[in-house]
Amino acid sequence: MAEFMAVSSLDSTFFSDHEKQTRQSWRRSHSLSLSSKGGPQETDANILPDISDPPDSDLEKANSSEDPKPAFAGFDPSSFPDGGLQAWLVVSGAFCCLFCSFGWVNCIGVFQAYYQTHQLSNYSPSTVSWIPSLTVFFMFAGGPIWGKCYDNYGPRQLLLAGSFLHVFGLMMASLCSEYYQFILAQGVCSPIGASLIFYPAMSSTGTWFFKRRALAFGIMAAGSSLGGVILPIMVDRIIARAGFPWAMRGAAFLLLALLIYANLTVRSRLPPSPKPWSLMEFVLPFRELPFSLVVFASFLFFAGMFLPFTFVILSAQHDGMSERLAAYLVPILNAVSIFGRTIPGYIADKTGRFNTMIITCFLSTLLVLCLWLPARGNIPYILFAAFYGFSSGAFVSLAPALVAQISDIRQIGVRTGSMFAVVSVAALMGNPIGGALVSSEDGGYWGLQVFCGVMMGAGSLVFVVSRWSLAGWRYVKV
């Protein structure tokens, strides 16, 4: 899931005000428009200009009657170090940040399964699922807020506050025995801290790299996938040997060590640039039909997308898989998602981002309805976890790219912030609805799986409509 935020944070966080003024003379005409004959006129939609292209073909020229303003150091491509000891130390610290934040969030299914059969066994699956739902919600909903704070104050205070809240929340979870205590510790305190850790790390990394930014972000994003593989196995093994409290404390101590290193290495190359808050910035983009359709499609798809992450372990155990083997389904899903976040992105640059998004979304829908729904046995569940990890990874990496493609380069951060605020609501409601369907089926997962597939299928169809609003029904690169 890391890449979902990577593209989203570029404009609102690691670009300061004086850089945004400079971009008015650098901005590329990037949107898709319909010609008078109804044919699409295609242009690239890079978030930043490609410095290898000549200015007259790639960048928007300034008014010829005015002298061009000099490029400020923050945006001038030649001013980015694109390497060096300090830059790579920042990347290594950001790697640790993503391991601790999104890597932890990626193992929410382990806790849904454990709580439902241990401390919270007297609560319904729908009630228990509010814990992972709140975890995902606070991870996404904080984006616009922390982006503004980053602009005003830089990463240092955010990282310190996030490190304390994340570790403190997990330590308190080790002492919890009541439902409301788990909600406050693991559903509110810890994910707010994780969100505070994630955004400054992502934004700070971008200030050090231009030509090698994809490499830097790829290394950084590997932290979330590695965390999603290691942490679920670690927690499961420690629970079996030392009990739940020490599993949470052990994880918290590991994250604390990594976060100490991250606080010492992650820093922005640019000074803070305070700017006023404007709520309307996040509302105005919805007046545009393509943007509204993309956000609505993401909302529908997201309402179902996290259900396998949360319930695949429980459904596998329900269908006969051993508890020991089922515990590896989430690590398998997260491991394969590494390829799902990179390969479709490369293909999308060749064939079109909307085209690739539509294909991968329908693939996810088919996997849920044609593989997860009828699965009865170990092999179908393992195959589903692997294939779904690939297809869902494509969604989280491509969704911000769609927003960037249909947005003014100076408004990418505002628009992605608006999208995150909407999809966070879908993340909040999806798991409780799925849990309620499990309860209504007396512990069966048929209703949850159908709901998951229908919501994702509906989102896929809306993505088709959003593509039509840009280029019609002709098959072109969109």
> Helix and strand succession?
HHEEHHHHHHHHHHHHHHHHHHH
DSSP strand count: 2
- Please tell me the overall pLDDT: 80
- Quickly count the helices: 21
Q: Approximately what portion of the residues adopt beta-strand conformation?
A: under 5%
Helix content percent band: over 70%
For the sheet with most strands, the description reads: 2 strands, antiparallel
Distance between the termini: 23 Å
Content-based structural category: mainly alpha
Low-confidence stretches: 1-74
**Rg to the nearest angstrom?**
22 Å
Largest sheet strand order: 1-2
Shape: globular
Can I get a quick summary?
The protein has 478 residues and is an all-alpha fold. Helix content is 70%, strand content 1%. It contains 21 helices and two strands.
Features:
about 475 residues; mainly alpha; two-stranded antiparallel sheet; 21 helices
Task: Describe it.
- With about 475 residues, the chain is mainly α.
- The protein contains 21 helices and two strands.
- It has helices spanning about 1-10, 15-25, 55-60, 85-100, 100-105, 110-115, 125-130, 130-140, 145-155, 155-175, 180-205, 215-240, 245-265, 290-305, 305-320, 325, 330-350, 355-370, 380-405, 410-440, 445-470, and strands at about 35, 40.
- α4 (about 85-100) runs antiparallel to α11 and α17 runs parallel beside α19 (about 380-405).
- The longest helix has 30 residues, at about 215-240.
- Residues about 1-75 have low confidence and may be disordered.
